[in-house]
Amino acid sequence: MSHNIHFGTDGWRGIIAEDYTFDNVRLCAQGFANYLLKHGKQGQWIVVGHDKRFLSENFALAVAEVLAANNLNVYLTDGPTPTPVIAFAVVNKKAAGAVNITASHNPPTDNGFKVRDEHGGAIAPSGLQEIETLIPESTSHIKRLSAQEAEASGRLVRFDPAPEYIAHIKTLVDISPIREAGLKIVVDTMWGNGAGWFTKLLGGHKTQVIEIHNGRNPIFPDMKRPEPIPPNIDVGLQRTVQENADVLLITDGDADRVGIGDEKGNFINQLQVYALLAYYLLEVRGERGPIVKTLSTTSMLEKLGKMYGVPVYETGVGFKYVAPKMLETNAMIGGEESGGYAFRGNVPERDGILAGLYFLDMMVKLQRKPSELLELLFSKVGPHYYDRVDRSFKGDRSQREQRILAAKPDSIGGLKVVGLNTTDGYKFLLDDGGWLLIRFSGTEPIMRVYCETTHKDRVQAILQDGLKIAGLE
Description:
By secondary structure, this protein is an alpha/beta fold. It has 16 helices and 21 strands.
């Protein structure tokens, strides 16, 4: 194909003005329209939203014009909107899917084109491949209807999705006790779509919400990218200590992920947060049901599954695998290593706002600060430690894969290797129940090396061995 557009883990992302152009965005929109029409969705509604990146609202309008010209109707959000709110709007409006203009946690140079199905969740890999094949090879095959004409004909309707989403959230978690708990919460919205949401939900009561990085600034000062992991969150952690706050909540650029900082200014990593949220649902709320996890997240979930008698399903990396598995199994919770968690009763999509509220509810219900919640978790499943290194690479990917497969190490970081899982990347299983994973990013020329272990003093040694196996050291 001449356009060279490829859908990765969560749609298509590119560098603004280099390959992420209006022509290419319109080509993607036409490809998605062709996919929807092929599956009998003509005349149905599609939700279109966007984040706060450079020109995102203009790209979203361009998508709306293409969809409207293809005998589809469009609900266009009236401003920057969190991905989970867009996902809920799909279900609430009985739409056939969604397009979200966002690059989520990517660097400021990027933007993206996310697609969602009628459940508000990620489209399965087979569907993404089909959309890619239906993208025209030239702009001459793009249909367009101006926004003015589309609005006049009723094919384009602008709307505010917030009120109905908030009403829905209040059916999932009782926010009144959180409002009246007298907590001091720092919220770092990373210059993204999470701005204003926790203030709107919790503000004006005994609990105090202090937002930082809550304006629009597409170059994302104070961070390399709006991803809720160190060092991007260091300013937020410092502010938490300065304010003598009880907790730090961090939402990424499109607010589908959440990060947590404790009252001492320490980061509670994504794997620990996932285990805490699963424990909250099982122990505090008394819920039961399957847990869906990607292979890059915590083995603490298997331990919790055994303790509470619930099945745990492991998938490849990305919500394009997690969402279909959640729907298939009616899962209680689904999540991944990136800090994205989805919940039964909501849409099968990561929701950083709901996850943050659940974490606050756990603090209130158990009357514990974040560091104390982590101690409680470790008292149940034992301490687990995690870290990750991302490295860019050049050259042929297949040669690197062959190198990894040929390594066949007996031990990694001083721990015996007891197995290898190649479902998605190369996951070396270690004899302490931990693991090392080497994986290629689906959206960038980056290799990721992750590990989890019960030995705090082995983390860096495991990562270093992983870098050597991958040929990055």
